[in-house]
Design goal:
The protein has 300 residues and is an alpha/beta fold. It has ten helices and nine strands.
Length: 300
């Protein structure tokens, strides 16, 4: 049985998860969840299938997305993530943006593959994209690198550390990326709630998570992901990291809605499972009512 019955942060094969939308919902049912948030990276392609599985298995599916953003921070551009919850997948504004974002990811990954090839690695483009169900991600490239270059890497993490990480040798920027303000606006246009994702995960970078949350609030963000299994070196840090308490207090100060989840991807090296972190029924009710109030629902 899962520790929590609500997990609002999970990924499918539509982005870089290892479970199809149906398999993910089935896993949620096995873990005793009653509410599951689908928040794939820069795509909503898995939502319909997940919602159909949710209806069959009696699990409420919260439609979401996780945007990867290029955000100006202290005169530099850094990558941050913004979650959008309760979005309407058929919103014209959202669909238009998703097409541009998806193409930007495709172009970026092709350039990244070409860069790895220039380093002498065997990584066929067609093999990478054969593994993609929705949008391409770095894990797809890493999986092919492991398979086609036996003995060179001990783990996927080593590939990210040396080549595919944000500041690693094969990092390539995207030709199109939303700003925080743009992503917040399109989420709201789609009827959704903009939530700053896993701020404590930036604690080891030069980004000050507390400053970043305050800045996000000023940009129109209405929530923050508080309850998150902050992981370092694939070992759970949990509440001992100190971030959960700090972010919870700041959310109260700034009147930001609070949410949480595992950021479950399903990879074999993950140490968290669905429901290991998330929300209680009361917390989810508060979060959902907050969204309804902000989007002007009359009866809730």
């Amino acid at each position: 049985m899962a520790h929590y019955t609500i997990d609002l942060h999970a990924h499918t094969t539509a982005s870089d998860g290892t479970h199809s939308p149906t398999q993910l919902v089935e896993r949620a049912a096995e873990r005793g969840l009653r509410v599951l948030g689908i928040a794939d990276h820069d795509t909503i392609d898995g939502l319909v299938e997940a919602q159909q599985a949710g209806e069959r298995l009696g699990i409420e599916i919260v439609p979401g997305v996780e945007f990867s953003l290029r955000h100006e921070y202290e005169k530099d551009f850094v990558g941050i993530h913004l979650l959008g919850y309760f979005i309407d997948p058929e919103s014209p504004a959202l669909m238009n943006v998703m097409e541009k974002v998806k193409q930007g990811r495709v172009d970026q990954k092709i350039w990244q593959i070409e860069k790895m090839q220039s380093f002498g690695f065997k990584v066929p483009v067609e093999e990478v994209f054969a593994r993609v169900s929705g949008v391409p991600g770095r894990p797809h490239i890493a999986a092919v690198l492991m398979e086609y270059n036996p003995g060179r890497f001990e783990s996927i993490q080593q590939i990210f550390d040396e080549y595919l990480g944000t500041h690693a040798k094969a990092h390539v920027g995207r030709p199109f990326s939303l700003t925080l303000a743009q992503a917040t606006d399109v989420i709201k246009q789609a009827g959704g709630l903009a939530v700053f994702a896993h701020p404590g995960a930036y604690g080891d970078s030069h980004i000050d998570p507390i400053f970043a949350i305050r800045n996000a609030k000023a940009e129109g963000v209405e929530g923050v992901e508080v309850y998150y299994p902050y992981v370092k070196g694939h070992r759970p840090a949990g509440e001992a990291s100190g971030w959960i308490g700090r972010i919870e207090a700041l959310a109260r100060e700034l009147n930001l809605l609070q949410t949480g989840g595992t950021d479950f991807h399903g990879r074999s090296h993950d140490v968290v499972d669905l429901g290991d972190m998330g929300l209680t029924d009361k917390q989810f009710a508060t979060f959902k009512e907050g969204w309804q109030r902000l989007r002007g629902f009359k009866n809730f």
